[in-house]
Amino acid sequence: MSTAVTLPADDAAVAARFRHWQYRTLIATMFGYAAFYFVRKNLSFAMPAMQTDLGITKADLGLFLTLHGLLYGVSRFVNGMWADRANARYFMVAGLMLSVGANVFFGFSSTVLLLGVAWMINGWVQGMGFPPCCRLMTHWFPPEQLATKMSVWNTSHSIGAAVAGVFCGYIVAFGWRWCFFGPAILCTVAGAILFWMLRDTPTSVGLPEIKVAGAQAGDHEDRSSAGYKEFVRRQVFLNPFIWWISLANFFVYVLRFAILDWGPTLLKEMKHFPVHKGGWMVGAFEVSGIIGMLLAGWATDRFFKGRGARMCVFCMLGACTALFLFWQIGNTPVLATVLLAAAGFFIYGPQALIGITAANLATKRAAATAAGFTGLFGYASTLVSGWGLGLLVERSGWQAAFGALLGIGAIGTFMFILAWPAKAHGYTAETERSA
């Protein structure tokens, strides 16, 4: 069943202004979220030098990744509920600036305790990045366009991680601390630009909101009311399909972070490639992910009519195949890069579509809450991809670790199969319940 959507296009001037702010919001949120990755994924490139300089073990570094990820997941969930009630412009910029401060703190630290505290603080404030973006996208774009438009937005993940990877792969030559100082300087400038570019909902710039048949409230709904809380409980926390894709997100993120967080170390120790080449190879993983998520979003709207879970089944099968081939035959830089790029191409489809699917199922009334809920599971994955993987590699080596990763990929595929019957969005269900 299709959803009737009325865009504010009755007046040509209003329609033109609305399109301007749609594209401005899309570009601003992409730019801002890419900046978050500069002060988040830089640790991976400092890790080999930190082991030598400070004598930190892989288990300790894995623990940093795990605690950071767990706090990020909880923060994204908590901040998702706050972001549904807050001005997204102030919320997002504040998160980026707090992350800059945490990176500077980390760069000046030398003990395991202080480094751990700094990275845990960073994990929490990083959770202020995604929820306001999700809120903005669902308020500026109708559900029929959200898979395509949010897949475009989701390229910010890969753009940020790829550029940060190449940047840190070279700046680490000046000392591992510059992996934190350099990105902090860049993101301070980025925060000022983001504050200038962003606004909140259409009504905050004098434009009418998008009208969606079945949506029971507008931008200024009382989010503290009993009715709203009951809606969130029913549409998010008691929705079995949001639970299935949230569980699937756990396994998707294990695969993603195994490459993103451990990639430079893995490529150096398992494949014997130098760190600067590892930076370009992890960059290829991210750049191909851009293409993969764009095609996955387009295919979801074109062939699956917005049903993201169905597209994710095929993406996960492709990702597992590419990682298996990388493990078994990726022994030259060219072949390893191609196979890592193929893995990124497929992994980033589900990584983008899970948030989009959750936002559509929860409707714009609770989009940030639903996305935060899926993120809670996604970043709980760092128990496995961070500390767990680091410990497994220390005890059994990278070969055993890759076997475990493929099993994790198979479980994630099964979770998406369970979510196959999910509808494209929750607006129809909202209408039916209110009738």
Q: CATH homologous superfamily, by name?
A: MFS general substrate transporter like domains
- Biggest pleated-sheet summary: 2 strands, antiparallel
User: What is the total number of structural domains?
Assistant: 1
Q: What's the tally of helices?
A: 18
Q: In angstroms, what separates the terminal alpha carbons?
A: 17 Å
CATH architecture: Up-down Bundle
What radius of gyration results from the CA coordinates? Answer: 21 Å
Strand order of the largest sheet: 1-2
Shape: globular
Low-confidence residue ranges: 1-5
The tally of strands reads 2
The average pLDDT score comes to 83
Class by alpha and beta content: mainly alpha
* CATH T-level topology: Growth Hormone, Chain: A
| Helix fraction by DSSP (H/I, runs of at least 4) | over 70%
**SSE topology string:** EHHHHHHHHEHHHHHHHHHH
Q: Give the percentage of residues in beta strands.
A: under 5%
